[in-house]
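Model it.
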Amino acid sequence: MLPEQSNLKAVLWMAGAITCFLVMAVAGRETTEVLNIFQVMEMRSVLGFIMLLPLVYRAGGLRAMKTAHPLQHLGRNLIHYAGQTAWLYALTLIPLAQLISIEFTTPIWTALLAVVVLGERLDAARITAIVFGLIGVTVIVRPGLDTVNPGHLVVLGAALAFGISIVMTKSLTRTDSVVRIIFWMLIIQSAAGIIPAIQVWQTPPASVWPWIFVIAFSGTFSHFCMARALAHADATVIMPMDFLRVPLAALIGWLLYAEQIDLFTAAGAALILTGNLLNLPRRRGKPADMAVTPMP
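Modeled.
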């Protein structure tokens, strides 16, 4: 049975997703100041798996988590793991607003990869999003006008990895539930990260543990909240809300870390978000394609 179509419920679930994404960014910065990124990733995946178990059993238990596409899950999650690791590393290098703005180039890479891998066609909306996004990134990074911050390149790599992950996930959302996809994400990424995490492992101080639990919870349930929002309303209704992450991230960066936003970052972010907004109408009635958000 299809979920009830309700804009109010969709907005509330989307508000939960945005809150999780922003809280995760703050928790990620706080934990990576003390612990190595690989250890943070491993603890996030393991604790996230434990937190997901109630939803797993509600969905039918471990038997219901069986999939007919194990290799696709493996490939998708290894690439997603690389993207998440790069995203966390970039979080230590550049202001929050710049990171979130450049992360929104993910639809550009998704569109280009869908053309190459899935044989989809570039229509006017996609071309517009790509052009606006590329110009926006150029405005933020300003190659040739100043020294390029390595963090910009790292988060661009993360956005590319997320784009590849979305393309690989597109068919999974037609056969596997959101809980099953997140279940395998956490298992595979826990296995992939255990060796590098052991090599840099240190006992987390007591002050860091609350942040670790926050990043595990928000990193896991941001995906679930987004999927629930998309189940209750069209993407065109709720996805523009996601653009609030850019000004909210700028506000959080200013309040907590005294980060200043320059004109180039604001202009570049506006261009990237405008391209994404113009691309939204073509997604009407296709929530399944966006059931698993590309974000960390």
